[in-house]
Amino acid sequence: MTYHPKSDFMAVMMQRGFLADCTDYQGFDEALAAGVVPGYIGFDATAKSLHVGSLIQIMTLRWLQKTGHKPITLMGGGTTKVGDPSFRADERPLLTPAQIDDNISGIKQVFAKYLDYGDGPTDALMINNAEWLDHLNYLEFLRDIGRHFSVNRMLSFESVKSRLDREQSLSFLEFNYMILQAYDFLELNRRYGCLVQFGGSDQWGNIVNGIDLTRRVLDTQIFGLTTPLLTTSDGKKMGKTADGAIWLNGDMRAPYEFWQFWRNTTDADVGRFLKLYTEIDIDECDRLGALAGSEINDAKIILANAVTTLCHGAEAAAAAAATAREVFERGGIGDDLPTLTLAKDEVGDGISIVQVIVRAGLAKSGKEAKRLIAENGARIDDAPLTDAGLMLDAAALASPVKLSAGRKRHALVQLG
Protein backbone atom coordinates (compact mmCIF):
# COMPACT_ATOMS: atom_id res chain seq x y z
CA MET A 1 0.00 0.00 0.00
CA THR A 2 1.05 3.63 -0.50
CA TYR A 3 0.78 5.63 2.70
CA HIS A 4 2.54 8.90 3.46
CA PRO A 5 3.17 9.07 7.19
CA LYS A 6 2.79 12.20 9.32
CA SER A 7 4.89 10.95 12.25
CA ASP A 8 8.66 10.52 12.39
CA PHE A 9 8.35 7.03 13.85
CA MET A 10 6.11 5.67 11.10
CA ALA A 11 8.37 7.27 8.49
CA VAL A 12 11.38 5.45 9.98
CA MET A 13 9.50 2.14 10.08
CA MET A 14 8.51 2.41 6.41
CA GLN A 15 11.74 3.86 5.01
CA ARG A 16 14.13 1.52 6.83
CA GLY A 17 12.21 -1.73 6.19
CA PHE A 18 10.78 -2.41 9.66
CA LEU A 19 7.13 -2.52 8.65
CA ALA A 20 5.39 -5.79 7.75
CA ASP A 21 1.82 -4.87 8.71
CA CYS A 22 -0.21 -2.52 10.90
CA THR A 23 -3.76 -2.89 12.23
CA ASP A 24 -4.61 0.75 11.39
CA TYR A 25 -1.92 2.76 9.57
CA GLN A 26 -3.73 6.07 9.67
CA GLY A 27 -5.11 5.77 13.21
CA PHE A 28 -1.74 4.78 14.65
CA ASP A 29 0.09 7.48 12.67
CA GLU A 30 -2.33 10.12 13.94
CA ALA A 31 -1.85 8.95 17.54
CA LEU A 32 1.93 9.22 17.08
CA ALA A 33 1.60 12.73 15.63
CA ALA A 34 -0.70 13.82 18.49
CA GLY A 35 1.57 13.07 21.47
CA VAL A 36 3.77 10.58 23.31
CA VAL A 37 2.73 7.00 22.50
CA PRO A 38 3.76 4.19 24.89
CA GLY A 39 4.43 0.97 22.98
CA TYR A 40 5.60 -2.46 24.07
CA ILE A 41 7.19 -5.70 23.00
CA GLY A 42 7.05 -8.83 25.15
CA PHE A 43 10.12 -11.01 25.59
CA ASP A 44 9.87 -14.43 27.21
CA ALA A 45 12.78 -15.33 29.45
CA THR A 46 13.71 -18.66 27.85
CA ALA A 47 17.49 -17.95 27.87
CA LYS A 48 19.99 -15.72 29.69
CA SER A 49 20.35 -13.47 26.66
CA LEU A 50 18.47 -12.47 23.54
CA HIS A 51 20.13 -13.18 20.20
CA VAL A 52 20.45 -11.34 16.91
CA GLY A 53 17.01 -12.60 15.85
CA SER A 54 15.50 -10.24 18.48
CA LEU A 55 17.55 -7.24 17.36
CA ILE A 56 14.94 -5.95 14.89
CA GLN A 57 12.48 -5.73 17.82
CA ILE A 58 14.99 -3.97 20.05
CA MET A 59 15.80 -1.48 17.29
CA THR A 60 12.06 -0.86 16.84
CA LEU A 61 11.83 0.20 20.49
CA ARG A 62 15.01 2.26 20.17
CA TRP A 63 13.56 4.19 17.21
CA LEU A 64 10.28 4.63 19.13
CA GLN A 65 12.24 6.39 21.89
CA LYS A 66 14.45 8.36 19.48
CA THR A 67 11.34 9.77 17.77
CA GLY A 68 9.85 11.01 21.06
CA HIS A 69 7.78 8.11 22.37
CA LYS A 70 7.86 5.70 25.31
CA PRO A 71 9.14 2.10 24.95
CA ILE A 72 8.00 -0.61 27.35
CA THR A 73 10.01 -3.81 27.57
CA LEU A 74 7.71 -6.45 28.99
CA MET A 75 9.52 -9.36 30.59
CA GLY A 76 7.52 -12.58 30.42
CA GLY A 77 8.10 -13.71 34.00
CA GLY A 78 4.55 -15.07 33.95
CA THR A 79 4.10 -16.24 30.34
CA THR A 80 7.48 -18.03 30.31
CA LYS A 81 5.91 -20.45 32.79
CA VAL A 82 3.54 -21.48 29.95
CA GLY A 83 5.66 -21.13 26.79
CA ASP A 84 4.75 -19.61 23.43
CA PRO A 85 3.63 -22.36 21.01
CA SER A 86 3.87 -20.09 17.94
CA PHE A 87 5.25 -22.02 14.96
CA ARG A 88 6.97 -24.59 17.17
CA ALA A 89 6.88 -28.30 16.44
CA ASP A 90 6.91 -29.24 20.12
CA GLU A 91 6.25 -27.89 23.59
CA ARG A 92 8.90 -25.69 25.22
CA PRO A 93 10.60 -27.21 28.28
CA LEU A 94 9.20 -25.56 31.40
CA LEU A 95 11.58 -23.49 33.52
CA THR A 96 11.61 -22.99 37.28
CA PRO A 97 10.89 -19.50 38.73
CA ALA A 98 14.57 -19.24 39.73
CA GLN A 99 15.72 -20.00 36.16
CA ILE A 100 13.27 -17.43 34.78
CA ASP A 101 14.49 -14.72 37.20
CA ASP A 102 18.10 -15.54 36.30
CA ASN A 103 17.31 -15.25 32.59
CA ILE A 104 15.50 -11.92 33.08
CA SER A 105 18.53 -10.41 34.83
CA GLY A 106 20.69 -11.43 31.84
CA ILE A 107 18.24 -9.99 29.31
CA LYS A 108 18.03 -6.68 31.21
CA GLN A 109 21.73 -6.14 30.44
CA VAL A 110 20.91 -6.14 26.71
CA PHE A 111 18.16 -3.52 26.92
CA ALA A 112 20.27 -1.16 29.01
CA LYS A 113 22.55 -0.73 25.97
CA TYR A 114 19.77 0.32 23.59
CA LEU A 115 17.21 2.19 25.70
CA ASP A 116 17.24 4.93 28.33
CA TYR A 117 15.23 3.88 31.39
CA GLY A 118 13.83 6.30 33.94
CA ASP A 119 10.80 8.27 35.10
CA GLY A 120 10.61 10.84 32.29
CA PRO A 121 7.76 10.97 29.74
CA THR A 122 9.80 9.17 27.05
CA ASP A 123 12.00 7.10 29.36
CA ALA A 124 11.67 3.36 28.91
CA LEU A 125 9.88 1.14 31.41
CA MET A 126 10.80 -2.45 32.20
CA ILE A 127 7.82 -4.43 33.50
CA ASN A 128 7.34 -8.09 34.40
CA ASN A 129 3.97 -9.62 33.52
CA ALA A 130 4.24 -11.82 36.62
CA GLU A 131 3.07 -8.59 38.33
CA TRP A 132 -0.50 -9.44 37.27
CA LEU A 133 -0.39 -13.01 35.95
CA ASP A 134 1.00 -14.60 39.13
CA HIS A 135 -2.03 -13.53 41.16
CA LEU A 136 -4.91 -14.28 38.81
CA ASN A 137 -8.00 -15.93 40.26
CA TYR A 138 -8.80 -18.69 37.77
CA LEU A 139 -12.60 -18.53 38.04
CA GLU A 140 -12.70 -14.74 37.84
CA PHE A 141 -10.31 -14.81 34.88
CA LEU A 142 -12.48 -17.34 33.03
CA ARG A 143 -15.62 -15.30 33.71
CA ASP A 144 -14.22 -11.82 32.99
CA ILE A 145 -11.65 -12.54 30.27
CA GLY A 146 -12.15 -16.07 28.90
CA ARG A 147 -15.70 -15.38 27.76
CA HIS A 148 -14.38 -12.93 25.13
CA PHE A 149 -12.41 -15.62 23.26
CA SER A 150 -13.82 -17.84 20.53
CA VAL A 151 -12.14 -21.25 20.40
CA ASN A 152 -13.18 -21.54 16.74
CA ARG A 153 -11.26 -18.35 15.98
CA MET A 154 -8.24 -19.36 18.04
CA LEU A 155 -8.04 -22.65 16.13
CA SER A 156 -7.89 -20.71 12.87
CA PHE A 157 -4.66 -18.87 13.79
CA GLU A 158 -1.76 -20.08 11.68
CA SER A 159 0.51 -20.69 14.71
CA VAL A 160 -2.04 -23.15 16.15
CA LYS A 161 -3.24 -24.52 12.82
CA SER A 162 0.28 -25.48 11.72
CA ARG A 163 0.71 -27.68 14.81
CA LEU A 164 -2.70 -29.33 14.43
CA ASP A 165 -2.25 -29.87 10.67
CA ARG A 166 0.92 -31.83 11.43
CA GLU A 167 -1.04 -33.82 14.03
CA GLN A 168 1.39 -32.65 16.72
CA SER A 169 0.09 -32.29 20.24
CA LEU A 170 -0.84 -28.80 21.45
CA SER A 171 -1.35 -28.84 25.20
CA PHE A 172 -4.10 -26.88 26.94
CA LEU A 173 -1.29 -25.07 28.78
CA GLU A 174 0.14 -23.77 25.48
CA PHE A 175 -3.31 -23.02 24.10
CA ASN A 176 -3.79 -20.58 26.99
CA TYR A 177 -0.67 -18.64 26.01
CA MET A 178 -2.47 -16.45 23.47
CA ILE A 179 -5.13 -15.55 26.06
CA LEU A 180 -2.43 -14.52 28.54
CA GLN A 181 -0.60 -12.45 25.91
CA ALA A 182 -3.84 -10.68 24.97
CA TYR A 183 -4.44 -10.01 28.66
CA ASP A 184 -0.95 -8.48 28.92
CA PHE A 185 -1.90 -5.86 26.33
CA LEU A 186 -5.12 -5.06 28.23
CA GLU A 187 -3.24 -4.68 31.53
CA LEU A 188 -0.50 -2.53 29.97
CA ASN A 189 -3.16 -0.25 28.52
CA ARG A 190 -5.04 -0.08 31.83
CA ARG A 191 -1.95 0.49 34.00
CA TYR A 192 0.43 2.42 31.72
CA GLY A 193 -1.68 3.79 28.87
CA CYS A 194 0.12 1.55 26.36
CA LEU A 195 -1.31 2.10 22.86
CA VAL A 196 0.62 -0.28 20.62
CA GLN A 197 2.15 -3.74 20.64
CA PHE A 198 5.05 -4.54 18.31
CA GLY A 199 6.16 -8.02 17.33
CA GLY A 200 7.36 -10.24 14.52
CA SER A 201 4.82 -11.05 11.84
CA ASP A 202 4.33 -14.50 13.45
CA GLN A 203 2.74 -12.65 16.41
CA TRP A 204 -0.04 -11.05 14.33
CA GLY A 205 -2.78 -13.32 15.70
CA ASN A 206 -1.73 -12.77 19.32
CA ILE A 207 -1.56 -8.99 18.80
CA VAL A 208 -5.02 -8.83 17.20
CA ASN A 209 -6.39 -10.87 20.12
CA GLY A 210 -5.06 -8.28 22.57
CA ILE A 211 -6.55 -5.38 20.59
CA ASP A 212 -9.94 -7.10 20.40
CA LEU A 213 -9.94 -7.98 24.13
CA THR A 214 -9.01 -4.43 25.17
CA ARG A 215 -11.74 -2.98 22.96
CA ARG A 216 -14.34 -5.33 24.47
CA VAL A 217 -13.31 -4.89 28.12
CA LEU A 218 -12.11 -1.26 28.26
CA ASP A 219 -13.69 0.16 25.11
CA THR A 220 -10.27 1.56 24.12
CA GLN A 221 -8.68 1.75 20.69
CA ILE A 222 -5.15 0.39 20.55
CA PHE A 223 -2.88 -0.71 17.70
CA GLY A 224 -0.53 -3.41 16.48
CA LEU A 225 2.49 -3.20 14.20
CA THR A 226 4.53 -6.17 13.02
CA THR A 227 8.04 -6.41 11.64
CA PRO A 228 9.13 -8.91 8.97
CA LEU A 229 10.48 -12.30 10.02
CA LEU A 230 14.00 -11.94 8.72
CA THR A 231 16.03 -14.48 6.85
CA THR A 232 19.32 -13.81 5.12
CA SER A 233 19.36 -13.66 1.32
CA ASP A 234 20.52 -17.30 1.24
CA GLY A 235 17.41 -18.34 3.21
CA LYS A 236 18.97 -18.84 6.66
CA LYS A 237 17.17 -17.77 9.82
CA MET A 238 18.56 -14.51 11.17
CA GLY A 239 20.72 -14.91 14.26
CA LYS A 240 21.60 -18.59 13.90
CA THR A 241 24.87 -19.91 12.49
CA ALA A 242 26.54 -23.28 12.14
CA ASP A 243 28.10 -22.85 15.59
CA GLY A 244 24.94 -21.66 17.38
CA ALA A 245 23.03 -18.49 18.22
CA ILE A 246 24.65 -15.06 17.98
CA TRP A 247 23.86 -13.90 21.51
CA LEU A 248 23.76 -10.20 22.42
CA ASN A 249 25.42 -10.64 25.84
CA GLY A 250 29.21 -10.48 25.67
CA ASP A 251 29.67 -13.34 28.15
CA MET A 252 27.71 -15.69 25.87
CA ARG A 253 29.16 -14.57 22.52
CA ALA A 254 32.45 -12.65 22.52
CA PRO A 255 32.29 -9.15 20.96
CA TYR A 256 34.91 -10.20 18.38
CA GLU A 257 32.71 -13.12 17.22
CA PHE A 258 29.67 -10.80 17.18
CA TRP A 259 31.62 -8.32 15.02
CA GLN A 260 32.76 -11.13 12.73
CA PHE A 261 29.15 -12.31 12.23
CA TRP A 262 28.25 -8.91 10.74
CA ARG A 263 31.51 -8.68 8.77
CA ASN A 264 30.55 -11.98 7.12
CA THR A 265 27.18 -10.64 5.90
CA THR A 266 26.26 -11.78 2.39
CA ASP A 267 26.79 -8.98 -0.18
CA ALA A 268 23.08 -8.86 -1.06
CA ASP A 269 22.09 -8.20 2.60
CA VAL A 270 24.46 -5.31 3.39
CA GLY A 271 22.18 -2.39 2.44
CA ARG A 272 19.12 -3.92 4.11
CA PHE A 273 21.02 -4.72 7.34
CA LEU A 274 22.55 -1.23 7.51
CA LYS A 275 19.01 0.23 7.48
CA LEU A 276 17.65 -2.19 10.07
CA TYR A 277 20.52 -2.58 12.51
CA THR A 278 22.33 0.78 12.43
CA GLU A 279 21.34 4.44 12.59
CA ILE A 280 23.36 5.42 9.53
CA ASP A 281 21.51 7.82 7.19
CA ILE A 282 19.33 5.98 4.65
CA ASP A 283 21.03 7.51 1.59
CA GLU A 284 24.39 6.36 2.91
CA CYS A 285 22.96 2.86 3.58
CA ASP A 286 21.82 2.74 -0.06
CA ARG A 287 25.21 3.94 -1.30
CA LEU A 288 27.12 1.38 0.78
CA GLY A 289 24.74 -1.44 -0.14
CA ALA A 290 25.24 -0.72 -3.85
CA LEU A 291 29.04 -1.09 -3.72
CA ALA A 292 30.41 -3.92 -5.81
CA GLY A 293 33.51 -6.11 -5.93
CA SER A 294 36.01 -5.73 -3.11
CA GLU A 295 34.51 -2.36 -2.10
CA ILE A 296 31.49 -4.10 -0.54
CA ASN A 297 33.90 -5.40 2.12
CA ASP A 298 34.41 -1.81 3.30
CA ALA A 299 30.63 -1.53 3.72
CA LYS A 300 30.59 -4.77 5.72
CA ILE A 301 33.24 -3.39 8.08
CA ILE A 302 31.15 -0.22 8.54
CA LEU A 303 28.13 -2.43 9.29
CA ALA A 304 30.07 -4.58 11.77
CA ASN A 305 31.53 -1.53 13.53
CA ALA A 306 28.16 0.24 13.81
CA VAL A 307 26.19 -2.77 15.10
CA THR A 308 28.93 -3.80 17.54
CA THR A 309 29.23 -0.22 18.85
CA LEU A 310 25.51 -0.19 19.68
CA CYS A 311 25.63 -3.61 21.37
CA HIS A 312 29.07 -3.70 23.03
CA GLY A 313 30.43 -0.14 22.86
CA ALA A 314 32.85 1.71 20.59
CA GLU A 315 35.92 0.31 22.35
CA ALA A 316 34.87 -3.32 21.77
CA ALA A 317 34.07 -2.55 18.11
CA ALA A 318 37.47 -0.92 17.58
CA ALA A 319 39.26 -3.85 19.27
CA ALA A 320 37.38 -6.37 17.11
CA ALA A 321 38.19 -4.43 13.91
CA ALA A 322 41.87 -4.21 14.91
CA THR A 323 41.99 -7.95 15.62
CA ALA A 324 40.36 -8.72 12.27
CA ARG A 325 42.96 -6.59 10.46
CA GLU A 326 45.75 -8.34 12.31
CA VAL A 327 44.36 -11.83 11.66
CA PHE A 328 43.20 -11.44 8.07
CA GLU A 329 45.45 -8.82 6.53
CA ARG A 330 48.72 -9.52 8.31
CA GLY A 331 48.32 -13.18 9.24
CA GLY A 332 48.95 -12.34 12.90
CA ILE A 333 47.22 -13.33 16.10
CA GLY A 334 45.37 -10.21 17.24
CA ASP A 335 44.55 -9.23 20.81
CA ASP A 336 40.81 -9.85 20.84
CA LEU A 337 40.45 -13.42 19.56
CA PRO A 338 38.38 -15.87 21.63
CA THR A 339 40.85 -17.57 23.95
CA LEU A 340 40.85 -21.03 25.55
CA THR A 341 43.05 -21.18 28.66
CA LEU A 342 44.11 -24.67 29.71
CA ALA A 343 45.44 -25.55 33.17
CA LYS A 344 48.80 -27.36 33.24
CA ASP A 345 47.28 -30.46 34.88
CA GLU A 346 44.71 -30.64 32.05
CA VAL A 347 47.48 -30.76 29.48
CA GLY A 348 49.69 -33.21 31.37
CA ASP A 349 51.73 -35.23 28.86
CA GLY A 350 49.54 -33.94 26.04
CA ILE A 351 46.00 -33.02 25.08
CA SER A 352 44.32 -34.10 21.85
CA ILE A 353 44.06 -31.41 19.15
CA VAL A 354 40.52 -32.68 18.43
CA GLN A 355 39.51 -32.01 22.04
CA VAL A 356 41.13 -28.57 21.93
CA ILE A 357 39.29 -27.61 18.72
CA VAL A 358 35.96 -28.55 20.34
CA ARG A 359 36.71 -26.72 23.60
CA ALA A 360 37.82 -23.62 21.69
CA GLY A 361 34.36 -23.51 20.09
CA LEU A 362 35.56 -24.18 16.54
CA ALA A 363 33.62 -27.46 16.29
CA LYS A 364 30.59 -28.84 18.14
CA SER A 365 31.91 -32.39 18.52
CA GLY A 366 34.99 -34.54 18.11
CA LYS A 367 33.46 -36.02 14.97
CA GLU A 368 33.00 -32.55 13.48
CA ALA A 369 36.57 -31.57 14.44
CA LYS A 370 37.99 -34.69 12.76
CA ARG A 371 35.96 -33.98 9.62
CA LEU A 372 37.26 -30.40 9.62
CA ILE A 373 40.84 -31.72 9.71
CA ALA A 374 40.17 -34.41 7.08
CA GLU A 375 38.68 -31.82 4.70
CA ASN A 376 41.71 -29.52 5.09
CA GLY A 377 39.61 -26.87 6.87
CA ALA A 378 41.77 -26.63 10.01
CA ARG A 379 44.99 -24.69 10.51
CA ILE A 380 47.38 -24.37 13.41
CA ASP A 381 49.44 -21.17 13.56
CA ASP A 382 48.32 -20.53 9.95
CA ALA A 383 49.80 -23.85 8.72
CA PRO A 384 47.56 -26.72 7.47
CA LEU A 385 46.55 -29.12 10.27
CA THR A 386 46.40 -32.61 8.77
CA ASP A 387 46.99 -34.94 11.75
CA ALA A 388 43.83 -35.59 13.80
CA GLY A 389 45.97 -37.55 16.26
CA LEU A 390 48.20 -34.57 17.13
CA MET A 391 48.79 -34.05 20.87
CA LEU A 392 49.70 -30.64 22.30
CA ASP A 393 51.98 -30.72 25.33
CA ALA A 394 53.13 -27.94 27.65
CA ALA A 395 56.13 -27.18 25.43
CA ALA A 396 53.88 -26.69 22.37
CA LEU A 397 51.74 -24.31 24.42
CA ALA A 398 54.64 -22.33 25.84
CA SER A 399 53.37 -19.47 23.69
CA PRO A 400 49.74 -19.07 22.55
CA VAL A 401 48.70 -21.31 19.66
CA LYS A 402 46.32 -19.98 16.99
CA LEU A 403 43.73 -22.42 15.67
CA SER A 404 41.57 -21.69 12.61
CA ALA A 405 38.46 -23.33 11.18
CA GLY A 406 38.12 -22.19 7.60
CA ARG A 407 39.18 -18.65 6.73
CA LYS A 408 36.94 -16.76 9.13
CA ARG A 409 36.89 -18.49 12.52
CA HIS A 410 39.87 -18.39 14.83
CA ALA A 411 40.76 -18.95 18.47
CA LEU A 412 43.83 -18.83 20.69
CA VAL A 413 44.87 -21.65 23.03
CA GLN A 414 47.21 -20.93 25.91
CA LEU A 415 48.40 -22.33 29.21
CA GLY A 416 46.97 -20.74 32.36
Automatic annotation (TrEMBL):
Transmembrane segments: none annotated. PROSITE patterns: S4. The keyword Aminoacyl-tRNA synthetase applies. A motif ('KMSKS' region) lies at residues 237-241. Keywords: Aminoacyl-tRNA synthetase, ATP-binding, Cytoplasm, Ligase, Nucleotide-binding, Protein biosynthesis, RNA-binding. Its main location: cytoplasm. ATP binds at residue 240. Signal peptide: none annotated. InterPro entries: aa-tRNA-synth_Ic, Rossmann-like_a/b/a_fold, S4_RNA-bd_sf, Tyr-tRNA-ligase, Tyr-tRNA-ligase_bac-type, Tyr-tRNA-ligase_bac_1. It is an enzyme of class 6 (ligase). Its EC number is 6.1.1.1. It is found in: Cytoplasm. L-tyrosine binds at residues 40, 177, 181. It comes from the Bacteria. A motif ('HIGH' region) lies at residues 45-54. One of its GO terms (molecular function) is tyrosine-tRNA ligase activity. It catalyses: tRNA(Tyr) + L-tyrosine + ATP = L-tyrosyl-tRNA(Tyr) + AMP + diphosphate + H(+). Belongs to the class-I aminoacyl-tRNA synthetase family. TyrS type 1 subfamily. Homodimer. Catalyzes the attachment of tyrosine to tRNA(Tyr) in a two-step reaction: tyrosine is first activated by ATP to form Tyr-AMP and then transferred to the acceptor end of tRNA(Tyr). PANTHER family: TYROSINE--TRNA LIGASE, MITOCHONDRIAL, TYROSYL-TRNA SYNTHETASE. This is Tyrosine--tRNA ligase.
